[in-house]
From TrEMBL:
Native organism: Ottowia beijingensis
Residues in the signal sequence: 1-25
Name of the protein: Cell surface protein
Keyword terms, alphabetized: Signal
């Protein structure tokens, strides 16, 4: 993949930048030629970073359901190089792309956005007052989320609900150093026009449309072309945070974005922190034009792959979390498998509280469980009707024998083999998996089933991000994938586990606390604990 020729045809306009008539746009996936802009080594692995900085960031949950809203930010901790960053929102049900855009971060820059329901459409919309450069540009915000990738037969209100809840992925597509001939990460003589255009001056980046047109309207056929346009191998250093809040009760649930880093070696803390390294350039233009070539090398998404894909891949579909970022992987399948392995757990644990109605201090808990790589193992093809929908397996993800794309694999072939498709859900078809739920009270009460103490009960959890409510109502007002459970006691701890195998799972518990005496509302957030 070092010399991928991926260029757009004539008459393509860069989305929202007002450059209609541009002949081409930058698109390159591969290693760079010039490494002088950084002293970091080439990456040899992809790992979860407990230090929460990296090349990829993952927000486990966003919502605009009911009166809920979401805040999130992305920070470039690199004080020398700018970053070209892809931001994508995916729906909770089946990881459908519901909105994406490109952000250009200057050194030390922070980009912030907020998601809330748009009054006119009933769909989520993202707003920002940030001065960093984006494609589309600032005039396109607020950006209302799109239902284009959802099943055509869903009612309008169901489509709206499906785009109002999900997760967020953030990808460092490329670095933007200040000089095109930067040596050893220090200086150079040839200024990088792209860097100049995104670098803040008196708190505002130029974001000049003509300058973007000059830089991003060049045929990119190899690494040298990408670097001449100002795009170099990404070195990570992104961090982010998120906050989900109830706009009526003023309760907030928040945390760090999960970080994945392309690295070479480990730090000095007993191999706990990966050392950031140079990844592959994975830059694609923010346009809705067909890619026009088979994209199997740059995505593991089974709906986009093959000579006759079920969904025509568009440029804004790229890159995704499976696009080969680590320089040691052979392609998208390897990266998707490695990323799933980095995030897999056999069980997740957390606390819960679900006080009885009329309690002096009402409390209730929701769990969020996100599976950010399930899409690459299996995806839902909606078909012409719900009854015609089907699970599409990624045959290339098989570790042993290869199943067909329509035949369910074995667990040895695909970690998501236990999935089944529910075609009758009110929110549309969703892939579901049976998880074992068990709970324990504070005083050694345990889940009872069949006359004795048991590990718990099995229940289907549907969707790629699902919420589990321990109280009578959902704290997060989950609507698309919500499941209610009956714990053994009003407070304690619980476990969700797969019967066999492991799944990539991240998430948190959100507990609402209401002080009726002072009319105070509080939110408690605890990230999930797990066993591997």
């Amino acid at each position: 993949m070092k010399k991928s020729i991926l260029a757009l045809g004539a008459a393509v306009a860069l989305g929202g930048l007002g450059v209609a008539g541009s002949a081409h746009a930058v698109a390159y996936f591969g290693a760079g030629n010039t490494v002088g802009h950084t002293t970091l080594a080439a990456s040899t692995a992809l790992s979860l970073n407990p230090g929460a900085t990296g090349h990829m960031l993952f927000t486990p949950y966003f919502t605009a359901q009911g009166n809920m809203g979401t805040l999130f930010n992305i920070t470039n901790t690199d004080l020398v190089r700018g970053k070209a960053v892809k931001v994508r929102f995916r729906g909770a049900a089946n990881s459908d792309d519901v909105l994406d855009f490109t952000v250009f971060l200057s050194p030390g820059d922070v980009w912030t956005g907020s998601v809330a329901k748009d009054a006119a459409t009933g769909r989520a919309a993202i707003s920002t007052s940030d001065k960093s450069c984006t494609i589309p540009d600032a005039t396109a915000f607020p950006g209302v989320f799109k239902t284009d990738r959802l099943a055509s037969y869903l009612a309008a209100d169901v489509k709206n609900a499906n785009v109002n809840e999900g997760y967020i992925e953030v990808l460092n597509m490329a670095d933007i150093p200040p000089f095109l001939d930067m040596v050893a990460g220090e200086g150079g003589t040839k200024a990088n026009p792209l860097f100049t255009n995104i670098k803040h001056k008196a708190g505002v980046a130029p974001c000049d449309n003509l300058a973007f047109q000059t830089v991003l309207s060049t045929d990119i056929v190899d690494a040298a072309g990408a670097e001449a346009a100002g795009l170099f191998e990404p070195t990570g250093g992104l961090m982010g945070s998120w906050a989900v809040f109830n706009q009526s009760e003023l309760a907030v649930y928040s945390g760090n974005q999960t970080a994945v880093v392309a690295h070479a070696g480990w730090g000095q803390d007993n191999a706990q922190t990966p050392l950031s390294a140079r990844g592959r350039i994975i830059f694609a233009p923010q346009v809705g034009s067909p890619v026009g070539v088979v994209v199997d090398g740059v995505t593991a998404d089974p709906l986009l792959r093959g000579a006759a894909p079920l969904i025509q891949p568009l440029w804004f579909d790229l890159p995704d979390m499976s696009t080969p970022l680590d320089q040691a992987v052979a392609g998208a399948i390897d990266q998707a498998r490695n990323l799933s392995t980095a995030l897999w757990r056999s069980a997740v644990y957390n606390d819960y509280v679900a006080t009885a109605a009329g309690a002096a201090v009402p409390m209730s808990t929701d769990w969020v469980v996100s599976q950010p790589t399930r899409r690459y193992h299996a995806a839902v093809n909606y078909g012409a009707s719900a009854s015609a929908s089907a699970l599409v397996w990624n045959a290339d993800m098989a570790n042993n024998a290869t199943p067909t794309t329509t035949t369910a694999p074995t667990l040895a072939q695909n970690m998501y083999a236990p999935l089944s498709l529910n075609k009758t859900l009110a929110m549309g078809p969703q892939a579901c998996i049976m998880l074992n739920f068990s709970s324990a009270g504070r005083e050694e009460q345990f889940q009872v089933a069949g006359g004795g103490f048991s590990p718990g009960v099995s229940l289907p959890n549907c969707g790629e991000v699902f919420t589990v409510s321990f109280g009578a109502t959902s704290v997060l007002q989950g609507a698309v994938t919500n499941t209610r459970v009956n714990p053994v006691s009003t407070e304690g701890w619980a476990r969700l586990a797969l019967g066999a195998g492991r799944l990539p799972m991240v998430g948190f518990a959100a507990t609402s606390i209401v002080n009726t005496a002072t009319n105070g509302n509080y939110g408690l957030t605890l990230p999930h604990r797990w066993v591997d």
